[in-house]
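Morning. Coffee machine broken again, so started the prediction first thing and wrote up yesterday's gels while waiting. Chain of 268 residues, entered below exactly as on the submission form.
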Amino acid sequence: MKLSRTRAPWRALVAAVAVCAGMILSGPSARADDLLVFAAASLKNALDDIDAQMAKEQGVKVVASYAASSALAKQIEQAAPADVFISADLDWMDYVAQRNLIQPASRIGLLGNRLVLVAPKDSKTAVKIAPNFPLAALLGDGRLAMADPAHVPAGKYGKAALEKLGVWASVAPKVAPADNVRAALLLVARGETPFGIVYATDAAAEPAVKIADAFPAGSYPPIVYPAAVTAASKNPAASRYLAYLQSAAARAIFEKHGFTVLQAAKTN
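Came back before lunch.
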């Protein structure tokens, strides 16, 4: 059911969509011998495919929890029983590393991504992203969906890009901050906002949106997804999982979903 912009205050609307996204992102209940993976929300489609493939090939049952990297890092800090953490940026991996919550030798830079501006599939508005492009005017009375720029990696990248392009000050009052990038994507897919900032891989995963334009390289910091085994993990499958994420089989899946693989493929 589509939420009405006229009847729902924006905070309530974003909260409601976050609940819907959370229902989509939640995983099955874990058993004691399952491998527990905390991963950035934008990884859901690719990791679900990889986890199913690994289970088929190696018999490892993975239970994944998808959310904003910031939320996952804070949960690990509060002793949530994760075996592996995959963040959508370096900052939140650094956050847990500085608190001795990961095994430093296990840490790798796994993936890269791109930042795009999306619109509902039926949008007729043409956009060309460039310095000082009129995004505020294009939004009109609408909002710009993006992950919370104060905490969530996709939102931080988006804010950096808009600042670099000289349009953040005009757009900031129009931002609808979401709990994670998939919640922002859902706002656009449902037609609740005319535009949103997400990763290219998110846009590819949602048929109800289209890419209006891509943010130019250099307008935001390089997007890097680091991965590591947590310090608290006792599961021997954790290191095998990181190795599998660097395998040729996983690489093919990541690339199918639009990610750039930073690690050389290893033999399965």
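The radius of gyration is 18 Å. Going to sketch it on the whiteboard this afternoon.
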